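Support request, please re-run this one:
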Amino acid sequence: MAAKASQTSDQPTREELIESYLPYVKRVVHRIAVHLPSHVEVDDLIHVGVIGLIQALDRYDPSRDNSFLTYAIFRIKGAVLSELRSRDFLSRANRKIVREMDQLFMALENRYGRPPTTEELADEMDVDLETVHDIKRMSSISFVSFEEMGVHSEEEKSTIFNALLSGNASDALTMTRLKELQSGIADAVDHLPEKEKLVISLYYMDELTMKEAGKALNITESRVSQIHSQAIIRMRNHLRKQGLIDAA
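Re-run finished. Output below.
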């Protein structure tokens, strides 16, 4: 990596590298921030994302198969999500609320033969509409948490994090767990309705923002967000039924 090599006249400095990758930091942060309450300072998360970028510059191993950009984006996302965990956005209590809404969504869909409206969810949960919107935003911050995978210790989290970065695991159990989860997610996507499958593809595979996906599909950004939330709920419930994430 150029950041580790001795500097020559044609090599970018560390500061220049950070500056050149800053747009990716901002893009990652804004993609996550769209799911957060309005009081969260985006600039704070950008600062955290820059720290993730610096870690990527320091730790990237060019002998690995993944490109630096892929590695950097993973590090940036990891740093931002760690910060949100420290602020309790991804706390156990909030995950429990999200799980309850996931289960209620599917129950109401079975009852009505269609996805329930936000108003119907609010009535069933006996909360106001803004609370339902907040829960939906929380549910989209992180698709699957370490805790839902049954991973709680920092050592286990570090092992899985490094395995995701490198594509290799130091133990067979970790690699088996990751392959099962990867297969389960692919299967969950296959079971989505076509429009939800398309939104998931545009958002996660093509890395479009909600606004960009809306333009591609000729629908509003809020409609994309709604479809995305429905897809995430279905996928998580599918993984729970398969026993791949915590159902309790």
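Residues 2-8 have pLDDT under 50 and may be disordered. Residues 12-89 form a domain with the Rna Polymerase Sigma Factor; Chain: A fold (CATH 1.10.1740.10).
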